[in-house]
Every structure is written in structure tokens, then in C-alpha cells.
Amino acid sequence: MNTTNTPIQACLFDLDGVLVDTAKYHFLAWKRLADELGFEFTENDNERLKGVSRMASLDILLEVGNVQLDDATKIALAEKKNNWYVEYISTMDESEILPGALTFLQELKQYGIKVALGSASKNAMTILNNAHLVPYFDAIIDGTKTSYAKPDPEVFILGAEAVQVSPEHCVVFEDAEAGIEAALRAGMRSIGIGSTNTLTQAEYVVSSLEEMSVEKLQRIMSTK
Ligand code: B16
Ligand code: MG
Q1: Using alpha carbons only, how large is the chain's radius of gyration in Å?
Q2: pTM for this one?
Q3: Annotated catalytic residue, options 14, 138, 142, 175
Q4: In 127-148, which positions are buried (b, 16+ CB within 10 angstroms) versus exposed (e)?
Q5: Which secondary-structure segment (H or E) carries 104?
Q6: Beta strands of 40-174 (E only): which ranges?
Q7: Contact partners, residue 206, CB within 8 Å, separation at least 6
Q8: What is the pLDDT of residues 168-181, one digit of tens each?
Q9: 161 vs 169: CA distance, rounded Å
């Protein structure tokens, strides 16, 4: 297949919730912090943190507990949570790769379609290394390379520039509505991973990458 004649030339992937199942470790670490601070933090509350940066996540957590703190304390608590999270992900491996993700990444490589990461996480390299996913990426843009959080389009614009593909030929795979909005603001196509109830702005939604293939992707993207 000659990809230069097809609409999609690059796939930009969010990490947590799209390629790997790290949300559970974020939850464990945030819950541990809430326990220490003396309030309850549920899995339902945790849904609000998906795709959100570390400091913005802490603000949401403190709002749940109705706790007000000064900036220095907040920075110290975010660091504490991150140390626990880093400890949890230090032992993760390929078994945390979400269904269908590896097969789809392998297929994209075979077709010569560029692949970039667009993640808010500052721990993305540790996760990709532990899951042995690094060789599948032509570019890796994560929270250490960006200044603005999703829904700002920066992370995806940098990804497209790194693989030298113009935005209209890029498709973003995201599990968070803020990430879908970032894709739209970047002028890119979008596929939501999750439910149409929450990913209302996505062009197309699948429940996991198990439902995706290069042939299906090009078909979906050429019919819009
Ligand atoms: P860190 P993504 C996001 O990853 C997570 O979904 C979100 O829960 C987390 O707060 C954020 O990364 C920052 O992560 O604390 O490791 O820098 O979905 O953008 O891949
Ligand atoms: Mg995500």
C-alpha cells in the first residue's frame, strides 16, 4: 500500500489509557495521598484525572477532599505522589500493554505510517522502556517536552513536526476528552478509545485498539 496517496500518514498516540494500563497506578498513588490527608478518593473521582497534568490532578484531588493548601505544600505532595507512582511502574512490563495496541503498532510499522507519542506524562520514557514499546515510535513527545497541557494542541503539533507530517494527515488516538479537543485544535483527525458517552467530540470511537487495523483506519478516515 502506498501511504502517500492515503489520507493518514501519521498516527499520534496518547499513552495512559490508549497503549498501556497505567491509570490504575495513578489511582493507587493518588488514593494513598488522599488516605494520608484523611479523605476518601474513589475510582469515580479518579476518572476526572485522566489525561490531566500532575499539578492539575492534585488540584482536583484537593477539591474532592475540600482541602486548601499553599503552593509549596502542593509541590511537595505532587512529588510524594509521583515517587509512589514511579515505584509502582518500576516493575511493570509488556503485560500492561492494552489489548490490540501491540498488533496495531506492528501493522503501522509494516505500512510505513509514522508513529508518534503525545502524552502528558513526565514518566512516559520509563513506561515505554518497561513495556518494550520504544522501537515502535518515530518520535516521542511527553510531559518533559511540553509547556502547555491538553486541551492545548502543543503536544500533538510537536509530534507532527517531529515526524514531518502536516496536521491534516495525522490522526490522534485518545482516551480523554481533553486530548480529543487538543487534536481538533491541532487541525488533526481523531479516534476516541472508550465510550461515545464521554468522547463526544471524537470523529470515531472504538472501545479498544483491538477494533482497529490500518485498512479500517484508512477506510474510516477517507469517508469523512
Ligand atoms: P505524570 P497521558 C497522563 O498521561 C495521565 O492520563 C494522567 O492521569 C497523568 O496525571 C498525566 O499523564 C501526568 O502524568 O504524573 O506521570 O507526569 O494520558 O497523557 O498519556
Ligand atoms: Mg490518556
Answers
A1: 18
A2: 0.92
A3: 14
A4: bbebbebeebbbbbbbbebbee
A5: helix 101-111
A6: 114-118, 139-141, 170-174
A7: 191, 192, 193, 212
A8: 999 999 999 999 99
A9: 12
